[in-house]
Design goal:
mainly beta, globular, nine-stranded mixed sheet
Amino acid sequence: EPMAPLEKHPFASYGFPWHRTHTIKRTVQGTSLNWSGFYAKSKKSVKHSVSHVSGTWTVPVITPATSHTYAYIWVGMDGASNHTIEQIGTGHKWGNGVQENIAWFQMYPHRSFRIKRFPIAPGDQISGEVRYVGDGLFSLQLKNWTQGVVFEVPPKFARSEHAHRSTADWMVSLPADHHTLLPLANFTTITFADCWTKIHGLKGAIGLTRWNNAPITMT
């Protein structure tokens, strides 16, 4: 049975998420202090090779904690091997006895933005998509299939003249407060599905043998 058409989310006002997101903090090869997930990249010329990335996940239930805990889930490009990131996703926090959920995006090194009034609840099926349009312009979309809503970042917020487009990323990460990583939420398990990317014009899943792929483990 086909999905019902998604209602376009109205233009929203923006504000900061709880904290800034942060570039990857590596320890040793394949591990990081604040990123966990997978990335894919070209086996040959890497820069400007990725043009599209998409993935789907389910909003987790956060286990109650005695202090504030956090987890950001997102798809995007870059950051695994350079200092630009084009990303969109959801953020989840346990604090003051309740779970809070937000939608957000960032064109790093520019600041991150919260997408206000975007409905999110535990158990919702979310899809994120980042596509390079051309001339420094990107298309970033977030869909809530459960609640029938889609949001596309306005073009004036979706431009980056310096994006490398070197990797496709599917990640769970931690925000930082003044460069200090915050406590990780206990979300049990987050699973990405329907993950694909387009590299050098070829569309395929993470594990396609035509390109390199690798996990990043949060330590």
